[in-house]
Amino acid sequence: MSLHARLAELASLGARGAGIERGLFSAPEHAARTRIAAWAREAGLAVEQDRAGNLFVRAGDPDQPPIQCGSHLDTVKEGGAYDGAYGVVGGLEALERIVRSGVALRRPIELVAWAGEEGSRFPLGTLGSSVYAGLTPLRALDALIGDDGVAFSDALHGPTGLLADVPLRDGFPALAAYVELHIEQGPVLERAGARLGIVSAIAGQRRFAVTIDGIAGHAGTLPMAGRADALCAASDLVLAVERAARNVGEAVATVGQLAVEPNQINVVPGRVTLRVDARSADEARIDAIEQRLREAAREIAAARQVRLAVDLLEKRAAVSMNARLRGIVRDVCVRLDPRAFELPSGAGHDAMCIAQVAPAAMIFVPSIGGRSHVGDERTAPEDLALGVDALVATMVMLAAAE
Ligand SMILES: [Zn+2]
Question: pTM of the predicted model, to two decimals?
Answer without folding.
Answer: 0.90
